[in-house]
Design a protein that fits this description.
Blueprint: E1 5-10, H1 15-26, E2 30-35, H2 44-53, E3 58-60, H3 67-77, E4 82-85, H4 92-97, H5 99-119, E5 124-130, H6 154-172, E6 177-183, E7 185-187, H7 206-215, E8 221-224, E9 236-237, E10 239-241, H8 242-257, E11 265-270, E12 276-277, H9 278-289, E13 295-298, H10 313-319, H11 327-344
Parallel strand pairs: 1-2, 1-4, 2-3, 4-5, 5-6, 6-11, 7-10, 8-13
Antiparallel strand pairs: 9-12
Helix pairs in contact: 1-2, 1-8, 5-6, 7-9, 7-11, 9-11
Bound molecules: UDP-4-deoxy-4-formamido-beta-L-arabinopyranose.
Amino acid sequence: MEMPKKIIVTGGAGYIGSHTIIEMLENSCFEIISIDDFSNSTPKTYERIKKITGKSVTNYNCDLKNIEELEKIFEKEGEICGIIHFAAFKLVPESVANPHKYYDNNINSLLNILQCCLKFDVANFIFSSSCSVYGNISQLPVKENTPLNKAESPYAYTKQIGEEILKDYSKIYSKLEVIALRYFNPVGAHVSGLIGEDPINKPSNLVPVITQTAIGKIKQMTVYGHDYATRDGSCIRDYIHVTDIAIAHIKALNYLIESKNKTNFSIFNLGTGNGVSVFEAISSFEKISGIKLNYVVGGRRDGDVEAIYSETTLSKTELKWETKFSLDEMIDSAWKWELNLKSEH
Ligand code: WQD
């Protein structure tokens, strides 16, 4: 039996990191080392992972901006086959209000983890990027080679800068093979209902706001704008189930480990290819829950793009990856998790 490959997952206690760890543990050819300082997550996540998979995960509570502490982890863990770098702050409105927090954390964390890659000879690197790198784009659906527009927020700009840094590193440091995965809008929760998005901070993303409004944590939600040039006036996004995103990371890792990559810096869109409006997402929730959502229509939100959704051919053909969850299944899994969260407290 082949020895499991040791993979470092930064941000392993986070929303996408934890769902990816679950899929990696189910597919047992990986040994996982998580690094998470719980700045937007809780250690409870690992109890939930154990409940679902029966397996424990080693986590180092380390701020990636602390290079001395970070290097000690690499020294202790020995040979690392790959890194999946999730750890980053990700709230668009917060990044507009507090750019230093985003540039300091997202860029310096990336530079430190890359310094460790070079120093400890780690070859395979998966970067958590975002569709927000495309900016306000008119030609839809977006392809990986669609020219990027100006980032609409500091958060999005940290992802554009991150991709440029990785492009330069992979060009010069020949051992480093990189994939940037551009997530569209990750939503939903593990089908067991035992884990899901559980942000420490008040959510700003649409689906957790919908479920928190329905369960009563939020009194009333606001639809930010209904005067966009879209089919119903509200913004269009490409919502994708978090487990579909998680499985794509395993496909991407194996694509590098099996040396299937054609260049040492590849980019893949992770979306369904379907655009869904805010009102359509609300209707889906009302249909699956039977609850009339308490919302008002307000003004537009700074940093929002009017519409964006993905062209998915490249990730299908290269990574042999396809999304499995429908919009109703995504929303249903998010609602099931919200109901379970209520029963946990
Ligand atoms: C979606 C739509 C809002 C809340 C960001 C990042 C992206 C990814 C997901 C990390 C917008 C509307 C929302 C509310 C609303 N981040 N909305 N009322 O901004 O598209 O994407 O988060 O992986 O990279 O850019 O996601 O869910 O915040 O907003 O009307 O209370 O829902 O205006 O049109 P966004 P979102």
